[in-house]
Amino acid sequence: KQEVTQIPAALSVPEGENLVLNCSFTDSAIYNLQWFRQDPGKGLTSLLLIQSSQREQTSGRLNASLDKSSGRSTLYIAASQPGDSATYLCAVSRENTGFQKLVFGTGTRLLVSP
Amino acid sequence: DAGVIQSPRHEVTEMGQEVTLRCKPISGHDYLFWYRQTMMRGLELLIYFNNNVPIDDSGMPEDRFSAKMPNASFSTLKIQPSEPRDSAVYFCASSPRDLGGTDTQYFGPGTRLTVL
After folding, report:
1. CB spacing of B108 vs A31 below 8 angstroms
2. Which whole number is the average pLDDT over B78-99?
3. Most exposed of A41, A114, B6, B35 (fewest Cβ within 10 Å)?
């Protein structure tokens, strides 16, 4: 059974800091890995999707890397802003269950203070 | 596009009552997903459809839960009878036809269900 863990569970940083969120998964036979953002009381918004053959993806101040063999991914946020405050979830899809079936991590709750 | 639409946004009911949650996916999307989010278990996939056909319902917790998709623009998740442990936020998501695993899922705002 695929298990996805995110560390830390919560993180508080001052504005302007660079930070790294971690995601680990137990079964390396994944199809892709995604990072989502969830604001309080709202649904999830996709940030980045990395296919299993890729090593990283970038969007603006966000960079996600994937090390499939070791079962790890990191989300790097540069020059953090108060608007980045949210819960960040990673999710993987497994090769043997199809790319549409996602298993989500436990999330990291980020607070960026002005 | 208005995005994925869910109704109601909040539902409070008493144990034993029937609850129906509704979802309108993004037009043109082939896949529809129902998720449940709780503090204890996180975000879990309950069931998903492809072109209105249920593909995988292995996440449905028990027979009290049922989901239907009568057409491409509407789906329901029904709980009958409801129990306090069903209290959670239920999300609907949709995604387009995806041949290469490069498309993500688009989530609705969720329905917060409280069963007293």
Report:
1. no
2. 92
3. A114
